[in-house]
Structure formats: C-alpha cells, structure tokens
Amino acid sequence: MLLRFAVLGCAGVASTAHAHVKWFAPYIVGAPPQPLSATLTNQWFWIGIALVLMFFLATRAVEKMSVGQSILAGMDKVMNPLWMRLDDFVRVVIAAFFVAIFAVGGVYLTPDLKTPNEWVSWMQLLIAACVFSRRTMPLAAAGIIVLWVLALTEYDLFHLLDYLALGVSVAGYLVLESSKKPQWRKYRFEVLRWGVAIALMWSSLEKFAYPDWFYPLVEEKPFLTFGMPRDMFIPMAGVAEFTMGFGLLWTALVRRLSAITLFVIFNAAVYPFGRIDMVGHALIMAIIVAIAADPTPQVRFAIRRSVWTIPAMLSAALLVFASGYWGLHLALYGPSGEANAPTAEMATHTYSAEHPHGPQVIGQATAPPAPSGAHGLGHTAPPASASGGSAREAYEASMARMHRPMQVGIRHPDPDVAFVLGMIPHHQGAIDMAQIQLQYGQDPVNRKLAQEIIAAQRHEIQEMKAWLAARGIPQPN
C-alpha cells in the first residue's frame, strides 16, 4: 500500500501502507543484498524520486507564501488541544504499548521479536508503570535500552538497527521529560522526531536491498498495490517511505504534511494486517502524531535551507544511509554474505491466526517444532536430514520423505482430492530441498531462487489445506 499513497502523495495526496516486509517472507540474515547498482538503474526509483521532489519543492514554495502560513495556522487551531497535553498523550501511549506487548507475552520490543523468557514480559509491565512519574521515567528509559540489548543476544545486529533508533529516541524522551532543567527538557520532542525519521529511512532500504522479501506480501494481498506491477510498486514504495522520513527533518509545513501522510500510512495498514500490527507500530504512530501537532515554526535541529537545497540534502541523505546499509552488511558478513550467517530459515513476523500470512502460516503445520530457545527472528529448524552429512545425503533424504505421502495421497478415489493430497507433500519436498540449498549452496542466484520457492510453495500449501478443510477432508500429517 505504501506505493499507492506515495504516488498520490507526490501529486498532493499521500503514500501507502507500510510494514516491515521481511515480516512476510523467509529470509537469511547474512544473504547478500541486491547490488546498489540495481536500484540506481531502476527507472521506477528515479520516477519516485522525481515525484517526491516535486511535492517537497511545491510544499516549501507554498510555505513561504501567505497561503502556506494560513494552512499552518489552520493546523495549529485544530491540533492545539492535543499540543497542550502532548506530554500526557506520549506517556500514555508509551505505557499502553508496553502493557500491550506484556499482554502479547513472550516478546521483546515488538511482537515479532520473540523470547522464551517470561520475566521479560513482567519487565515490560514495570516499564509501563514507571512512565507516569518523573522520578521513575529514567528507570523506564533504562529498561527500554536493556530490552534492546537482551534482544541483541538472540537476534542479528544488522536487523535490529531500525529498532535501535526508535528505542533510543523513546528512552531519550523519557530522560529529557523527567529533567528539571528546561534547557534539556526542551529537546524531548526533537529526539523523538529524529529517532522516527532515522528508523523509517533505514528500514525503507530493505525494499531496495531485498525486494524479494516483499514478493509474498504482494502476491497474498494484491489489492495493496492497486493494480501496480510488483517491480514498479516495491522500489517506489521504498522511495515513499525514505522521503517521508526525510520530510520529518525539514521545515514546518513539509514536516507536518509528512507526519500526516505517515499517520495515514500506518493506520491504513491496521485492518489488512490486524491488531498485532497496530501494537507493533503504536510508538511510531504516536510520535508521528506528536510531530504533526508541533506548532513550532522552526524546531531545533531541523534542516533549514532554501527550497533549492532540498534535492542536494535528499541526495546526501540517500548517500549516507545507503552507504551505511550496504557497507555495514559488507563489514558484518563479507562480500559473499556468508560470514557468520546462520543457516536456518528465518521470518520476523509472528504467525497470527486472525490474519494469517507469511511463511509461518504453513510452517506451523508442516515444520517440526523449534527447539527450546530457538525464537530469534522466528527461527525454524532446518530439515532433520540437513543438520549433518553432505548435501547429497540431505537431498536424498528429503526425496525419500516426500515419496510415501505423495503415493498415499494420489490413491484417493476422488481425482481432485488426490491431486491436492499428492501436491502438498510434493510442495513440502520442494521447500525441504530449498532449505538444504540455503544451507549448503553458495551461488547467489540459486539462493535467491530457493528463498522464493520457500515463500511460494508455502503459500500454495496454505491454499490447498484450506481447500481440504472447507470440504471436511482430513489434513495430511
């Protein structure tokens, strides 16, 4: 959805529904990202940049006119009641967020970061309780940082960095809000604004580095693209998310319109992806509201330049973030993307029976239970045959497991049922082979293909099992 609103937003409306798309597809943490050159030669990337620049330049030009000041005055009038109680609003949302993830249970800072430690949930409840007193706010801030550090013991650093910017900004807000020194307290909302902006710009790069993570999302929920082709939607959605985050750092009208656009984006994602998605994005949504409500003409630490410096500053931001993203991945994993990379398949989004999507929809039914403690990023165990020995032995064992249930399935007297009962183990065999390829294979093209096979075959297994369930036919083991 992000792209739909993005294109409209560049023309004067908004952009689309955003969520960490790695939530919706299996991925390998150490897999090499798509070369940056692929993005720089993508026409849709540059079209998106051009549309957003037109929007920013027009907004900045209007802001300097009397009509722009009238628009800002109208925003102030509407949002002034919230602005007068903004600290109360932010604290209530922070507390409500930690109560919500306490209720979800077994997570760190978002519903997709799982943990087997029950005491972590009680720590979240304690953080929520500490938010309402200025004496205990620093304890709540420390607790947020501790949760991130604890998550780092089970999760990969590279894929926790977007959570870091948001967590530090919320912790910083609590520390500054509790301060008795006005010269420090006045920076509390700026810290939140920069934290969200950095988190959005960093996470948007996934759409350029790993576009295949988004394929299952587009296939399972095609209405999100409003008919746009997949390879057009994904890069332009990345542009929309990055530039709206960048807009939060600009001048008053650009900043507030960007915040309103992002608020529409995140709210639009709630219904398609369920209440858990709302919990996961609650802090970002609250901070975006705070930014939109801020009437300050020129906030501290804003980018205050003339209209014609917008392209240069946006280019500089893209250069810094892209260099950091691809450069850090290279430093952590090496050129081949294999250094210290776990071999198990991963998926960061927790399975939801209310709104099923992503690899765990099928993984819950077909994969063996994960061993105790294997909760990082939704880890699933590799096929048993792939845990040791050679690739050839693993492939042969996966085929042996597939053949018997296939033979049993195709013997059903109903040819339609026989087809489905035979195809389910056939698809599971393809998934097993793809997982083995990811464990042993080195070729980046084959590894990417294997990831796509896993996502596609699991989605089709889901459809076939739903077909069987609708007809009251027992599910295959």
TrEMBL record:
Q: Where is this region: Disordered?
A: 353-394
Q: Which domain of life is it from?
A: Bacteria
Could you tell me which Gene3D superfamilies the record lists for this protein? 1.20.1260.10
| Domain DUF305: start-end pairs | 386-468
Which keywords belong to this entry?
Membrane, Plasmid, Signal, Transmembrane, Transmembrane helix
**What residue range is the signal peptide?**
1-19
Bias (Low complexity) occurs at 381-394
The reply on keyword Transmembrane helix is yes
Q: List all membrane-crossing ranges.
A: 43-62, 89-110, 122-150, 157-176, 232-250, 279-296, 308-328
Checking Pfam families in the record gives: DUF305
In its UniProt entry, what is this protein called?
DUF305 domain-containing protein
- The species is Comamonas antarctica
Where is the organism placed in the taxonomic lineage, from the top? Bacteria, Pseudomonadati, Pseudomonadota, Betaproteobacteria, Burkholderiales
